């Protein structure tokens, strides 16, 4: 249907719900981030959303992807935001657009472009003129792009968001933070898009102190948490005239390299969602309905390439047990929506020490057992209803059970099957910096190491640091310590061209201030006496998403590479440093066109493993079976992977070992999981539309691996 065929809509709200053309509307939304899937996937994802009972799609806007270089805009392909919104509308879905431009989202730099760091005097997300100037320019640009897509103009966008979870950092900035947040809301309202603007509060909003502000005058505050019903009373007291909208109902959690995979059981998620509506909730956004993939270098610091997030639709867009369970809940809620919203608040009656009945006009009732451990029986309208621990039943006026959060559908199981054979690999070794052709790049020479992002502008993960290491006769043979004070994230230590040590994982997600222990690394090396060439390959793992990852220093302080002192056996290294940003293979774009630079050689069948710093290439035909597809990289180490010139993302086969730290204690009521010891991520998603009749796979392998064991697999 052409866009012009959609009628304009008026969007507002009262104390109970969002109003669309004056009618109270229950919002059942699912988050899908357009850059984390592909345009060919979008229609199927929208269909699955409708099938799952959703009436709305939510997405952030990703400034960091749209304007990687200042003034150079990209709204093509995966970044075609208008196309994504129009597709949602064509599938009968509203859109909630969270402009930010700080969005968190587990995306590189929290959605901010890395070049903001280069602005003199910049401080992110506070009353800082350089930051506000760029933010206003971007927000106004986005507003003009989306204006035709807003509901008053016949578009699908019914809500927009400015900023994101500001209460996470508000106490750090005090009055300047309050002034910034009010400025941001005033900026949003000045755009005159004709739709309400929201600001959202983070997961522990009910515990927030007076300085933990999340909203400002003129915005509709919303809730982000695992169990919104537990903060609903506090929310209603704070905002008596606002409807209760749950902008992030976390369906699971993200995973970090070497970290635990936290899972949210489908029945716990359904319980929390139903319980929210039982208590008077007006709308929910499942964060996420489809997580997708952190293609290229788009994930935040330490986030793995998969962004599955435990979502109802898996990384490949396929339905799961969770999607089937939530679909039944959503359809039950839609069937009751008019009667629920006709009541200003439900009638709540105690049915036991941890049991309540929440009744709406027209006979709809929610029977709630909030006991974490014990089952219960609730008598309602002359019938006894057995409820499992922490569960909700939705009962129709005739006594029929519309939904039971504890009763799961038949489990959906998925597996990977081999889809095609790969041709034998060819290999080319990445040269060390002194081996580079002069035409590629002249090294930066300095008396001290220069921080990586000032050299790379975050256009590559890699930067070489090279100097001379002198080992005295008295130090020879026995292990001695190479100490780096001020370094991030991964360092591979090469001595005289050979890999001698690497940063052990897993790394900490919250590392504290830059002068803390998390930014110091040491390596025990046993070297012969004499002068040695020390080459450090520093590898970034994405930029942070928020101040708290740097001990609440401002995001502008983010650093990579080597910037502090280097010591051998306690003595400072005094030679000059030569810095070489990026890899020779990246500069020659060997992942784009075969044979243009790299002298590829066939990988010998007898060579079970390739050495570190290996570029690998192979080919394969388009699989005859239908996708979705992935590469099984279970026998590799760490690096990057490309298909037909497109970067699929980082790969790292580090074992899953790190449990949830103490800072995640507040999450443990909703998430479950234990370290498995298997690789954090073994399979790497291949969008079917990126395949050709003949395909070329290229990997850069930092540590070495067994490429003969790489498989093209199909998700079934």
TrEMBL record:
Annotated Glycoside hydrolase 35 catalytic domain residues: 18-331
Q: Which residues form the Beta-galactosidase galactose-binding domain?
A: 613-694
Look up the EC number in the record and give it: 3.2.1.23
One function term, GO molecular function aspect: beta-galactosidase activity
Say which enzyme class the record assigns.
Answer: hydrolase
Catalytic reaction list: Hydrolysis of terminal non-reducing beta-D-galactose residues in beta-D-galactosides
Describe the family membership recorded for this protein in Swiss-Prot or TrEMBL.
Belongs to the glycosyl hydrolase 35 family.
What is the recorded name of this protein?
Beta-galactosidase
